[in-house]
């Protein structure tokens, strides 16, 4: 099994493509020869990335600037997808909040839910029918190792990512035999390969560099997993350790401990 081959008529759609994991995956897909549809809020940033990819790889790159936390903006993107032959979809856009749920800004929490969960749900539905009809396609939804365990002071984010994790893995099994794959990317901490010392957090300073997952290595592992039709990919040693501990460790002990740490981030 491999990723769908790039063609002149198909597009790989990547949300959250203006930075982080989404941008890294988009850049690697372009290097593979895929035409792209990049989605994020910041049009100027997207256009800059698009021009870089066109020049470097000779691929077609379209841009749709929209806020996927808004229902009408998701609908606008779906209207574009109706006239686009999507052979790869990567739902990477997402945000987080930290601190007690009762003290969070409700508008931000609602936007977080809509972006992290509802948009993923709607966009997956928008492309999967045509993929199955063609007998080819690959979907990757970015969940999180945080979706494995209750985390106080991160409740809304955990709510959304637990849903994305379970939804994606369920769909993976449903799509077996259709020619369409569905892969969950469940990362832990991911960062740039190099962080200036003045920008390093306490976590950056405490955790050894070799344990971190960079955006570039995360993108490579993710696309390799998608090409193999894997159900779940957890890139990097630190993420793998967190994924194992959060899945099999005693939640009654782990949840308050992690929640205490997250309260400081809030």
UniProtKB/TrEMBL annotation:
InterPro entries linked to this entry: KR_dom, NAD(P)-bd_dom_sf, SDR_fam
Gene3D superfamilies, per the entry: NAD(P)-binding Rossmann-like Domain
Domain Ketoreductase, residue spans: 12-193
Keywords recorded for this protein, A-Z: Oxidoreductase
One Pfam family per UniProt: adh_short
One function term, GO molecular function aspect: oxidoreductase activity
PANTHER family assigned: ALCOHOL DEHYDROGENASE (PTHR42901)
NCBIfam families associated with the record: mycolate_SDR
Protein family (similarity comment): Belongs to the short-chain dehydrogenases/reductases (SDR) family.
The protein, known as: SDR family oxidoreductase
Organism field: Corynebacterium tapiri
């Amino acid at each position: 099994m491999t990723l769908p081959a790039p063609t002149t008529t198909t597009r790989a759609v990547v949300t959250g493509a203006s930075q982080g994991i989404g941008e890294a995956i988009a850049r690697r897909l372009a290097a593979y020869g895929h035409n792209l549809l990049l989605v994020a809020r910041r049009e100027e940033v997207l256009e800059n990335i698009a021009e870089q990819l066109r020049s470097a790889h000779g691929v077609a790159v379209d841009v749709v600037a929209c806020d996927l936390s808004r229902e009408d903006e998701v609908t606008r993107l779906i209207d574009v997808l109706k006239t686009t032959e999507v052979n790869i979809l990567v739902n990477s856009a997402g945000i987080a909040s930290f601190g007690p749920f009762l003290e969070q800004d409700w508008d931000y929490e609602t936007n977080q839910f809509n972006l992290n969960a509802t948009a993923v749900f709607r966009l997956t539905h928008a492309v999967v029918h045509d993929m199955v009809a063609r007998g080819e396609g690959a979907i990757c939804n970015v969940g999180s190792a945080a979706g494995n365990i209750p985390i106080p002071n991160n409740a809304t984010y955990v709510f959304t990512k637990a849903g994305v994790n379970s939804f994606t893995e369920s769909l993976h099994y449903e799509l077996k035999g259709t020619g369409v794959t569905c892969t969950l990317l469940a990362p832990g901490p991911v960062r740039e390969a190099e962080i200036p010392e003045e920008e390093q957090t306490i976590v950056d300073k405490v955790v050894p560099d070799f344990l971190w997952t960079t955006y570039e290595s995360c993108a490579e592992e993710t696309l390799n997993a998608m090409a193999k039709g894997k159900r779940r990919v957890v890139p990097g040693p630190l993420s793998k350790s967190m994924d194992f501990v959060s899945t099999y460790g005693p939640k009654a002990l782990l949840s308050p401990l992690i929640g205490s740490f997250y309260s400081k981030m809030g």
